Amino acid sequence: MIYTAGIDHEQASIDIRGAFSFSEEQMKKLCEELLKKENVRGCVIVSTCNRMETWLSLEEELDFSCVEYLCTFAGIEYDEYVSFFTERVQNEAVTHLFNLTAGLKSRIFGEDQIITQIGDALTFARRIKAADNVLEVLFRQAVTAAKRVKTETVLNVKDYSVIHIAINRLREEGIDVKGKKCLVIGNGMMGRLAAEVLKNAGADVTVTVRRYHHKEVIVPEGCKKIEYAQRYDVIPTCNLIISATTSPHFTINLESMRSLTLEHEIDVIDLAVPRDIDTKIGEIPNVRLYDIDSFQIVPHNEQMEKNLLRAREILQEEQQYFFDWLRGKGNISQIEIIKEAVGQDTMKRLIPQIRQLSLPKNEKEELKRQIAGAGERMMNHLLFELQKSLSDTTFRDMLDAMVNNLYENE
Predict the structure, then answer these.
(1) 140-192 pLDDT, tens per residue?
(2) Which of 31, 49, 66, 238 is catalytic?
(3) Which tens digits make up the pLDDT trace of 40-57?
(4) 61 near 4, Cβ under 8 Å?
(5) CATH 3.40.50.700 correct for 162-294
(6) For 2-152, which CATH class?
(7) pTM (predicted TM-score)
(8) Does 31 participate in catalysis according to the annotation?
């Protein structure tokens, strides 16, 4: 059984989501603890600014409260947070993941970053040996489906990252970043993207950096850099500040901000979860504060509705591939035996014709492999099509009979 428990931007504010924003070390520990549960076979954690979801592959139905366990792990009261969680199982869970990966559940509708985030979640789970083959195939198929959606239809418009949306929002309010001094706090993926977008928009960009022995400091071309500790020195000269870090502490706190002399208006955008910036600085004169939940866009027009319909068709097709695989998971070894036998038989039947071809030996051998592979793929397709029209018991009996027949004729 596939199960997920999640908390996201649709039901929970930044501060509530922030309580479940786990570090990699915490996610590793969480997966390890969940895998100790007798019924749990695999675990993947999806953690982004907009959501935290725990995905489990179960031998049978869930026999403990995953949400209560998550609250205990986070050190918070279950009764206060349970209402913000959504639990899904099997088909509903699979449909949710495919829609999520395609950007249909993002604040910035159709955005592409979520594909990378889902892929990264699987990569991390794989690295710590937490993902079993069910979650491995599920997440890979969801990423494949999302990429098909991006290739075959359009769910967004140009410049559809949260940074672009933020800049457009400021522009609508009469604030153009071109020629303005901007400070980006954070040198991670989001920080570098923000710096690059601002630079391309004509801004004068400075990026804070912290020097770690195990990480390379990368600053987008054309941007200046300062040490993180110097950030308050340049803030009074800035028109725009963007903070996007994974720091457990505020990158801009109220006391330090109040000590500065601000002679012009400053727009401050906090893109972190948990928050990077003390919300009370929005009360300081000349400071306008935005957070990641300030930016949302879901386009609605006739063409978008057509594109969305096509996207859902693609997702349903790809989900069916996964369900076909899941149904046949217990029969994989027998299917592989049958496929290989058919491939070899197909190749052997054509050996006389292959021998008559004037080709080098290595090319003849390659041709044999291709013919065998074509036979295997044909049989694989036929078996899965048969599986759709037969009951599980009948399909297993058919595979048993085919394999037994192969052994008897050896």
Answers:
(1) 999 999 988 888 887 665 555 778 778 888 888 888 889 899 999 988 888 88
(2) 49
(3) 999 999 998 888 999 999
(4) no
(5) no
(6) alpha beta
(7) 0.65
(8) no
